[in-house]
Amino acid sequence: MSSRNKLDYREVLIPKRLKAIKYILMIASGKGGVGKSLVSATTALILAKNNLNVGLLDLDFHGPSSSVIYGGLKMPSEEEEGLVPPVVEGVKVMSIDQFVEGRPIPVSGREKREIIKELLALTHWGDTDVLVVDMPPETGDVLLTSLSYLRGRRGAILVTTPSKLSLKVVDRLIRLLSETGVEILGIIENMSRLELQDKKVSPFGLEGAKELSSKYNIRFLGSLPIDPEASLYADEGKPEKLIYTRFGLELEKCLKKTVLLD
Ligand SMILES: Nc1ncnc2c1ncn2[C@@H]1O[C@H](COP(=O)(O)OP(=O)(O)O)[C@@H](O)[C@H]1O
Ligand SMILES: [Mg+2]
To answer: What is the position in ligand 1's atom list of the atom closest to the CA of 60?
Structure first.
């Protein structure tokens, strides 16, 4: 029998694994460098602080950073029921980083799709209110594969900076998500302004994210400042402090406008 015809048990396992998850929240940006991972990691912490049972799945191949932001992650433990993710600040965290431990991060599309399948088929999340997924930073095949497996009650929050480059990619992402039937909960504009004493500077432009939201009739959830303190705590791996930064508090306001925290 050729490998093409072999039954892939992971295809059967994945829906079973995701059954115990009430909501899959995908955080996507279509590209890297816009703060998607910081938003994902902090969102998971905020939801956990609000007494939800939360998981974080880091599928950001271009820089899986949840292990840094969460202060170094233990390896998942191999139990009879599957791989059980370590828990940090109330969040169950599973990252490509832990999964490929020591091996190079996969680079080809096929390898990436295999890892996603593997991660989803093996991880035992247990009963979970919200699984936050830091989505692959692209609008191609690897993203589509992730969407095809992350089924159930689901929605996406899109992260963009005010720069035209980022907005253009998110524009494409919105059309792609609409075609695949994924509900978009809203758009968050990150790195929208820098506050210097009493002066506010908008280095990447103004209003673009709001305009994009109204173009597609999507909710604009709010904008997050460039916050050196948040960046520092992310680099130092101090998740307990991250949620109380300006960045964290503004993000919580954004989330309160969605079904997740209303
Ligand atoms: N609002 C912000 N203020 C300060 N630093 C930020 C902000 N958003 C992101 N960063 C920092 O910018 C860098 C890129 O963010 P990251 O979340 O890794 O982007 P992405 O996942 O989109 O590639 C990281 O060092 C992150 O801590
Ligand atoms: Mg990232």
So the answer is: 21
Q: Does domain 3-255 have CATH number 3.40.50.300?
A: yes
In the block, tokens 């095949």 appear at: 141
Which ligand gives the minimal distance to the CA of 64? 2
Looking at residue 31, its amino acid is: K
Question: Parallel, antiparallel, or unpaired for β 220-223 and 183-189?
Answer: parallel
Q: How many A from CA of 96 to the centre of ligand 1?
A: 18
How close is the Cα of 160 to the center of ligand 2, in Å?
13
Query: Which ligand has its closest atom nearest to the C-alpha of 191?
Result: 1
Q: In whole angstroms, give the CA distance from residue 64 to residue 68.
A: 9
Residue 113 binned pLDDT confidence (cut-offs 50, 70, 90): very high
Q: Which of 56-70, 132-146, 167-181 has the lowest mean pLDDT?
A: 56-70
Q: Measured from the CA of 38, which atom of ligand 1 is nearest?
A: 17
Q: What is the pTM of this model?
A: 0.95
- The protein residue whose alpha carbon is closest to atom 10 in ligand 1 is 35
Give the separation between CA 86 and CA 201, rounded to whole angstroms: 40
The amino acid at 60 = D
The amino acid present at 237, given as its one-letter code, is G
Compute the distance from residue 28 Cα to the ligand 2 centre, in Å.
10
What are the residue ranges spanned by the domains of the chain? 3-255
Give the Å distance between the CA of 80 and the centre of ligand 2: 31
Residue 2 reports pLDDT greater than 60: no
Protein residue with its CA nearest to atom 25 in ligand 1:
231
Task: Tell me how far CA of residue 114 lies from CA of 80, 111, 183, 191, in angstroms.
Answer: 22, 5, 25, 33
